[in-house]
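task queued by scheduler; priority normal; single chain, no ligands, no partner chains; default sampling; output format set to structure tokens
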Amino acid sequence: MSSSRQSTRTKLPEVKLPRIPSGSRAPAGWGQVNIGTRTRGHPMAGGLKRPEPAGDPPDWWTGTRPEWAVYWGLQKNGLQDGLDFTYQARLPGVGAGYYSQVDFLVDTYSIGIEVQGKFWHYGQGQQKIATDLFREQLFAGQGIKIVFIDEQDALEDPTYFVREALEGEDHSHVKNTGKAQ
């Protein structure tokens, strides 16, 4: 039994669509490289971000940006590098090694300032924080009070947090909670 099937499809005639003389069929911006995007929020709000008071570190600065802010804050509080404070001071006889280093040593105040960076201090977990607190005790044995300044505090208001550090006030997250951020 063979059945022959015939197609029920009908062939439609070819129809050419008329070309619209008004211009390109492509949407606006199609095929262009420079397509502008708008950031979220009000277009003029981009300039409202609060600038860091210390600004950009100079080319000769070898430390981190938060350390630069503390350096700048020490100067704004009337202290001079090499005379009143030392950056990356090495103290012999502190700790298990030959020496230990503190970010800033202010001899006249017997204060050491450590900048607590998000990555190098808080980001390394509780063990790193425990090490920082242990080093604080070792420095205390040498008559030097260590004050921690959090990275964000140093960048936002270095003069205030340095002035507080010189008075022995510690506003850091690790000293006030004992935990990483």
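post-processing summary
- The two ends are 83 Å apart (CA to CA).
- The beta strands are 86-92, 99-106, 111-116, 145-150.
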